[in-house]
Amino acid sequence: MSTASPTDQDLEFLRRPLHGFLTVAGGPVPPQPRPVWFEVTGSGAVQLFTAPDSVKVRRLRRDPRASLVVAAPVGEREHWVSVAGRARVEPDGGHDLCARLGARYWDLDDPARAAELAAMLDQRWVRVVIEPDAVSRFAG
């Protein structure tokens, strides 16, 4: 099933701390998906952070088409959501997003993880926002 925007069930699923697999256009054939931390916004867009000079940013500047696929972990019934659309690179908000996602994905009571996140927060980040044109899903 495919729709132009995420359903309430999609949003609930996308709010879980799962890895998304980002694919951008303009790369080698076939595309090379990469696992990423992400956050769904109130409008149903998905956002992630990355280095401003990353390959994905260079490719998105040439061709803004992107998709993010999120799947349930092993041990759960098959369930996935795919968000595809045009991505934009925002110079602001990457640092705050990194901090939020670090707390979402890692146990920051673990000193090693807290130190790793602190080191990440010393770097420069941009925010990539994918506005959905098509949202597909499967729930088995």
Describe this structure in words.
Helix content is 27%, strand content 36%. It has 140 residues and is α+β, with helices and mostly antiparallel strands. It has a single domain, classed as Pnp Oxidase, Chain A (Roll), CATH 2.30.110.10. The mean pLDDT is 94. The longest helix has 12 residues. The protein has four helices and eight strands, in the order E-H-E-E-E-E-H-E-E-H-H-E.
N-C termini distance: 12 Å
Strand elements, count:
8
The biggest beta sheet is recorded as: 8 strands, antiparallel
Sheet-strand content, in percent, reads: 35-45%
- According to CATH, the homologous superfamily is Electron Transport, Fmn-binding Protein, Chain A
The helix/strand class is alpha+beta
- Our Rg estimate from Cα atoms comes to 15 Å
Average per-residue pLDDT, rounded, comes to: 94
CATH hierarchy class name: Mainly Beta
- Please name the CATH architecture: Roll
Which of globular, elongated, flat, extended, rod-shaped describes the shape? globular
- Structural domain tally: 1
- Poorly predicted spans: none
Q: How are helices and strands ordered from N to C?
A: EHEEEEHEEHHE
Annotation field: number of helices: 4
CATH-assigned fold name: Pnp Oxidase, Chain A
What share of residues is helical? Answer: 25-40%
